[in-house]
Amino acid sequence: MTATDPALTALSQGWCALSLLHGQIESRIERALQAGHGLSVREYSLLDVLSRQHNGPGGHLQMKQVADAVVLSQSATTRLVTRLEDRGLLTRYLCDTDRRGIYTDVTEAGLALLSEARPTNDTALRAALDEAAENPELAPLVRAVEELKVPV
């Protein structure tokens, strides 16, 4: 395959469309969350991921798992956790079985803020997808997102 191969060009165009859709969605949600709740998309995502933890086997995420889930480096995730901890939305503690492990839980205040912000996030997501669906280049991607069946 060469750089001008039609398959590569189509692949590149598809990637550009996906990147554009992601950027539009993230920008719309960012504005809505900031205006309504003083949260960034990353902060919301972190609270959401951590709120899904449980006390059963494998129920608490290590920082690397959290970083992977919110698509940040471990150092950026640690800084984000610190900011939310300073706001009283998260708390950290040592793992009972491995003193090297540090876990993070969402506080009651964090859960309350997440609960308030979730409808804002969902409404902004729906609006961004509806707007993107009007673009013929993005419409197939919007349909693909809408048809995803992701286990929660």
Task: List the keywords.
globular, mainly alpha, two-stranded antiparallel sheet, 2 strands, 152 residues
Describe the structure in your own words.
It is a single chain. With 152 residues, the protein is mostly helical. It has 6 helices and 2 strands; from the N terminus they run ααααββαα. The mean pLDDT is 90.
The biggest beta sheet reads:
2 strands, antiparallel
Biggest sheet, strands in spatial order?
A: 1-2
Mean model confidence by pLDDT: 90
Element pattern in H and E = HHHHEEHH
Low-confidence runs of at least 5 consecutive residues: none
General shape: globular
Number of helices: 6
Q: Hey, roughly how much beta strand do the residues contain?
A: 5-15%
Task: Outline the fold blueprint.
Blueprint: H1 6-37, H2 41-51, H3 63-70, H4 74-86, E1 90-94, E2 102-106, H5 108-133, H6 139-147
Helix pairs in contact: 1-5, 2-5, 3-4, 5-6
Characterize this entry briefly.
With 152 residues, the protein is mainly alpha-helical. Helices cover 65% and strands 7% of the residues.
